[in-house]
């Protein structure tokens, strides 16, 4: 097994290689506006660090979000393209699940990432491997009663300490955690879903209400 994992659902552009036993190379860069520019060079650097070519990869793992439309689709489209070109399976893993896994908290706890618009993407976990609700997108104040007293992980938790006073690292997802979680689930015989995006809301860019379609005469 050689899994190439990548995630662009948060401001982190993150890539990792996992050989079925451990992460053998990884790279993460935080830049919310340069996902498309940074992702492929990051893949090249991780492969070079491991001394392997892309043709050695036997499977792709992509973080499915939730996340902003533009950033999230960069990773998912890249993963699908690699899978098609290499003829290997492409697996989807919820980005919040990878953050929960990396936290290694015993639970129960919450994972919350920044959804912008003064909202968070969030989910509840019984432990670092078991999601019990979500993901969803809400204003932090609207879920204050639901998350009261629970530790929280992620950039969303760090942004709103009045709602998440027990905020913990990591702030952003890492492909190393994504790959490790996927490898663990695959080794257990679990069938991972296809990498379908968890947008949870409409994209920011929309057609103007009074837009007129111009047809050629």
From TrEMBL:
It comes from Streptomyces thermoviolaceus subsp. thermoviolaceus. Coiled coil: none annotated. NCBIfam families: T6A_YeaZ. It comes from the Bacteria. Residues 32-149 form the Gcp-like domain. Pfam families: TsaD. InterPro entries: ATPase_NBD (IPR043129), Gcp-like_dom (IPR000905), T6A_TsaB (IPR022496). This is tRNA (Adenosine(37)-N6)-threonylcarbamoyltransferase complex dimerization subunit type 1 TsaB. The gene is tsaB.
